[in-house]
Predict the 3D structure of the following.
Amino acid sequence: MHDIDFGALLPLVNELLLATLTALGSLAVAKVCGWLKAKRDGELGVILDKALAMGIAFASARLTALGGKRMTVETKSELVADAANYVLVQVPDAVKALGLSGEHLTRMIEARLQARADAAS
């Protein structure tokens, strides 16, 4: 019976095993990072949603205090601008982290105003 010496293959097996473990570890870290980013973005979304609601309330109260009761195109535009400025001042880091622009905020505020108008009628 002949003995086979596998000792010469040991460095190759070690390298393959190390490469496989590194790849699996990298995949696991990527999944965890993706999950944490999604969780962070979700939390930032909640903060932004609250800031948008508060910005709309602030702008509406300011408009009412100035005597504007009816929603005209001009007052709606002013209300949207006030609400967007409120959000940009109060939560600039959340807006930046989510990659939102002034146009995004304007559309989000207009959508909320429309939903509010639909609910009131």
Notes: The helical segments are 10-65, 73-90, 92-97, 102-120. The chain is about 80% helix and 0% strand. The two ends are 94 Å apart (CA to CA). The chain has a mean pLDDT of 82.
